[in-house]
Amino acid sequence: MNPRVTIVLAVLVAAVAGYIFAVDRPQAQRAEEAKHLVQLQKADITGVSLTSSKGTVDLQRTDATHWQITRPFDAPAASFAVGDLLDAVTGIVPQRTLAGAGDDAKAYGFNAPSLTLALRASGGRSVTVVFGKADPVGSAMYARLASGQTVYLVDSSLKDSLSKTGADLRQKTLADFANADVQQVRITAPDRTLVVDRTGPDRWRIEGAPAPHARPAWPADDFKVTDMFFPLTTSEAKRFHDGVTDLALYGLDHPAVTMDLTMKGRTEPLRIIAAQRGKVAYGMVAGAHTVLELDPSIVGKLTPTPIALVSTRILPYDPQNLVAFTWRRNGQTLQVRRQGPGFTGSHLSDQDVSDMFSAMNLLDADKVQELGAAPGGAPAFEIQTDGGEGARYVVQFYTQPRGGWLVTDRALGLQYVLASNALDALPKSIKGFLGVPAPAAPAPTGRTPKPKPAAPHKP
């Protein structure tokens, strides 16, 4: 094809695509939105007042994702529940329009509405939707905007979706936040303080302890850390005590645990306090006036020991910062170093290097403990990783008298217990260097194998 023709066709295709994205699609979107009864975007709504036979509930937005109930009581609202409510009201598409029929309010039940929903939005905008009687024919009910006379028929199931009480909409848990927003967790109990810092998207570090219980900082397991504060957003209260001013009634004047969570985008930590009395745990957000009754197990979940959070990975290095990986045995060294996007060295094939890292990245201990007495004798071999922050570790592997491996990290003061087959996934070249025996062949079953049929004779 002529290059000039190709260029002209490419320009035409780009022009058509630009028209679709810049003109046609927005017009279609606006046409679809125009069908909706409420012409407000969900994200622009800042306040809601809902009145039904169940009473009146007032809601106020506090930030992009959170809401506060201000009537009939003062308490945080469940973000997902308010989100469902707003989705329902902003998604109303009338089944039918009865133009000019709104003059007779009584005929459609607007003189005694079954439900009224007032919305406030940014820029001083507001919309009020009034719902009247059910349509005698079909599954619809009458609705209209308070500012107009046009009557609409809408799906009657909306009444159940929108008729919510404060109890329906209130937050049932101690807190509502995204795990990814937590940057630091500080736990204070009568006998200890535990601080865990986020160092990456799925990486945490347990801060070291000063004397007299001195210990270094430990790498923490992402799942164990998030499981620690997961109950704050998932454990629902059995009962609420609103308007609390005397914390001593619930043992919260001297809480068993205080958890401070430093969040992304928040200047002050979120403080949670909890205490246990008999078979009931009480918890609340510090500064609030609502105490939640919770399952007593939550107190134990919020106060783990530091060792319970430690990563079971033998070498919890940050792969992005790693520049060298070294094996040492009997004075001999096998090393790979970063070159460009990969690693190379010691005459290992690319496949061997890839298999080595696959095995080491999945090498988890069966148990991790604080380092006790130094094992006797010399280690079977040693591994050292080098690089930037979070990539420098040295561990020694010792064979156990009864099988398996004991791995020590003296700098961290930790020891790991591994099964005897923990290194089976390493490539043969590295296992040969380490003197690690090949996996044992399966034991014979005692059955005599059936003879294979003879191959047919070919002339």
Beta percentage is 25-35%
| Amount of helix | 10-25%
Number of strands: 26
Sheet having the most strands: 9 strands, antiparallel
What is the CA-CA span between the terminal residues?
58 Å
Kindly report the spatial arrangement of strands forming the biggest sheet: 4-3-2-1-6-7-8-9-5
Could you explain the architecture of this structure?
The chain is α+β, with helices and mostly antiparallel strands and 459 residues long. It folds into 3 domains: 42-169, no CATH class; 179-309, no CATH class; 319-434, Dna Ligase, domain 1. Helix content is 20%, strand content 34%. It contains 9 helices and 26 strands. The protein has helices at residues 3-33, 79-90, 105-108, 158-162, 166-169, 222-234, 297-301, 350-361, 428-434; strands at residues 45-52, 55-61, 67-71, 75-77, 96-98, 115-121, 126-134, 140-145, 151-155, 182-189, 192-200, 203-206, 218-220, 239-242, 257-263, 270-277, 280-285, 290-294, 322-329, 332-339, 342-344, 367-370, 381-387, 393-399, 405-409, 414-418. It has a 9-stranded antiparallel sheet. The protein has a 9-stranded antiparallel sheet with strand order 13-12-11-10-15-16-17-18-14. β6 and β7 form a beta hairpin. The longest helix has 31 residues, at 3-33. It is flat. Mean pLDDT is 87; it is low at 23-33 and 452-459.
List keywords for this structure.
Dna Ligase, domain 1; 26 strands; alpha+beta; 20% helix; nine-stranded antiparallel beta sheet
